[in-house]
Specification:
This protein is an all-alpha fold and about 240 residues long. It is built from eleven helices and no strands.
Length: about 240
């Protein structure tokens, strides 16, 4: 009980919400009569493939965004490159500000339909949170700490890796969590350009007027977003150096 009290509230409360929603959905699913179309879409074999495709789309997009945004954020906080900061952030902001559906459709005209196009559209849409948080996290590191590390003989690279980045980890990982949740929700739109996701359940439910299928899709997307957000929170908690959490 003492260990539970030491943990931040969201670390143990969010799983409770996930369990309640999941149990509620299972009870509703077991007690509801579905049409043949709904049964076909919600059978475990079909649903399992759909969920895996949705997760794959989300994780691939996240990995690419992290590989692009974090190094770029580091680069933009170096003294010689800070003048590029407003330009890069504004370009990233264009992707965030543009409607997600419109962005995906524009990429479809250029690259065609399918998984690859959906990934590129999602990457453009989710760069800003990680880029911005990387910049903010590194900027908030006390310059006296940086100067002290340089004063004891650390090189610029060693100072970045052993001092600045560990101190910026909580803020950077918070940006990654935000991007993950954005990607889970936005990935549902990939169904419009031929990439399989849980959005298929939602669009089928709307098109064929099958409310139960629509509700199932919405609940499953919400549950997936909560689970991924919670897992991200655990990573953030354990990756944060002691004394900063």
């Amino acid at each position: 009980m003492k260990r539970l009290r030491r943990l931040p509230m969201d670390v143990w409360f969010e799983p409770l919400i996930i369990v309640v929603l999941l149990v509620g959905y299972i009870v509703w699913y077991q007690s509801t009569t579905f049409t043949e179309t709904e049964q076909a879409s919600l059978s475990w074999s079909t649903l399992q493939t759909t969920i895996i495709d949705h997760i794959k789309l989300t994780l691939v997009s996240t990995v690419i965004v992290v590989v692009i945004a974090i190094p770029l954020g580091i680069l933009l906080t170096r003294p010689s490159m800070r003048w590029l900061n407003p330009i890069a952030v504004n370009i990233a902001n264009v992707g965030q500000a543009a409607p997600a559906v419109g962005l995906l459709v524009l990429f479809t005209f250029w690259l065609g339909t399918g998984f690859k196009t959906a990934v590129i559209g999602l990457v453009v849409y989710a760069v800003l949170p990680i880029l911005q948080n990387t910049i903010v996290g590194l900027r908030q590191v006390d310059q006296r700490t940086v100067e002290a590390s340089r004063g004891i003989g650390y090189s610029a690279v060693r100072t970045l890796v052993q001092v600045e980045l560990p101190l910026a980890v909580p803020v950077i990982l918070n940006g990654v969590r935000t991007a993950l949740v954005i990607l889970v929700g936005t990935a549902t739109l990939s169904t419009f350009i031929g990439a399989t996701s849980l959005g298929t359940l939602i669009t089928t439910g709307v098109t064929l007027f099958l409310p139960k299928l629509l509700v199932s899709g919405a609940i499953l997307v919400g549950l997936l977003a909560l689970i991924i957000d919670w897992l991200g929170r655990l990573v953030e908690l354990f990756a944060t150096p002691r004394g900063l959490s």
